[in-house]
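Human:
I keep going back and forth on a fold encoding question. Comparing notes only helps if you start from a blank page. Show me how you would write down a chain together with its backbone fold. Write it directly below this note and I will take it from there.

Assistant:
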Amino acid sequence: MAVTLADVAARARVSAATVSRVLSGNYPVAAGTRGRVLRAVEELAYVVNGPASALAAASSDLVGILVNDIADPFFGIIAGAVQTELSGAAQGGEKLAVVCNTGGSPERELTYLTLLQRQRAAAVVLTGSASEDAAHARALTAALARLAEAGTRVVLCGRPTGVAAAAEATGAVPGESQGTEETREPGKTRGAGKTPEADEAPPRVPLTALTTLAFDNRGGARQLTAHLIGLGHRRIGCVAGPAGRTTTGERLAGHRAALAAYGIEDTPRRTVHGAYDRASGYDAAAELLRREAGLTAIVAANDTAALGVCAAVRDRGLRIPEDVSVAGFDDLPFSVDATPALTTVRLPLQETGARAGRLAMGREERPPGGLATLRAELIVRASTSAPRP
């Protein structure tokens, strides 16, 4: 059940009229009373109604697109493709896209979802990785449930299959076999968020309100590392993404699965975590080469970090790929123009963003079970070769 004005009034021990005055800000209210009301609003996650024209249902012209970093081409491509579908909609009219930059903050993500609910957003598209923290998974599920209850369509775009598994564990998606599409190697479900609160289970999200378009991060990472092993590399460093993020976990799992398949030990000193940016890639590669100068290959969390890896390798007087092979992930537009051109894993960012836009507009049928896993494709270029004898 949605939290009402009366619920807030009861929690704050005031009248409903007083709550309304505090929230409107148009009437003088004692500071102590105002504080109790605002605390009750926060504790109950009460959502104030948005514009009067949108009170009846989630039928506004607003669609929220949540991204971790709008400056990252990964998110820019997806968000741009979503917006193109919104602006080109013939059925239902055009929608206003509002891009919300979370900076990777779980708290900011939840705040934006609440703000979008207040505005009665027609749809919300969440892109990229999520926090693996169980408490956040429960809070996110609750936020999505409130949006869905208000009639908002929700599309998870580029979130790993583990997010869908966590949602399934809390009742957000069907608890049956999920459909996949164009998957070279299905990712194993992860257990993030499986431990429910002891006293209260999170609300269920209506099944028709939530759609997940996931990338096969695990399968793509396994292909990439297997490619390097096939070239003859055995001492492979890994510049992983930020710890505690779902995409990082799946790509690292794929890398380790390839090592295990070929009987290569997963040595902890050969993995360094960092952000998905060039500076972190540089620092992580410098640390890996300090730990083990004999590394013959380095895989990076994404293409941007891979550019930093390349710079760190060159600054040590080493050549790419003659001395150290370097590989990235995502196949961002600049990858083919890097020197040498970057071996990477291609994700269908443009296509997936466009599909998310159509789903958000209700112009495309949901995949079976509400979940589709999109193929990751190995792209071999000049930055990788066989190690020197």
Q: What stands out?
A: The chain has twelve helices and twelve strands. The chain has a mean pLDDT of 85. The longest strand covers residues 62-67. The CA atoms of residues 358 and 364 lie 6 Å apart.
